[in-house]
């Protein structure tokens, strides 16, 4: 879709809806940036360390369902 077509459609909306469209575009941009952001070196190092720790002692792993329940309880969130 061409930019001019989008601009025309946006201009035809009431000002309140234009703000909603702008907010939604901000949301989409932020979401897209999070999806494509590469890992930092520190994040890669942390993941490598955690993976090695798991490979060295897989019995210490926690069940994901149990962890979720603990977090829900800790932060008093509905489960």
What would your notes on this structure say?
- By secondary structure, the chain is an all-alpha fold.
- It folds into two domains: 3-36; 41-74.
- Helices cover 73% and strands 0% of the residues.
- The chain contains four helices and no strands.
- The protein starts with a helix and ends in a 5-residue tail after the last helix.
- The mean pLDDT is 89.
Distance between the termini: 42 Å
Overall mean pLDDT: 89
How does the overall form come out from the CA principal axes? elongated
Q: Radius of gyration, Cα only, in angstroms?
A: 22 Å
- Which structural category do the helix and sheet elements fall into? mainly alpha
Count of individual beta strands: 0
Indicate the low-confidence ranges by residue numbers.
Answer: none
Q: What is the tally of helical segments?
A: 4
Q: Estimate the strand proportion.
A: under 5%
Count of the domains = 2
Element-level helix/strand string: HHHH
Question: Could you give a short account of the major beta sheet?
Answer: none
What helical percentage do the residues reach? over 70%
Overview features:
79 residues; mainly alpha; 0% strand
Detail the topology: elements first, then pairings.
Blueprint: H1 3-11, H2 15-36, H3 41-56, H4 64-74
Domain DUF2281: 6-36
Pfam families: DUF2281
InterPro entries: DUF2281
Summarize the structure in short.
The protein has 79 residues and is an all-alpha fold. It has two domains: 3-36; 41-74.
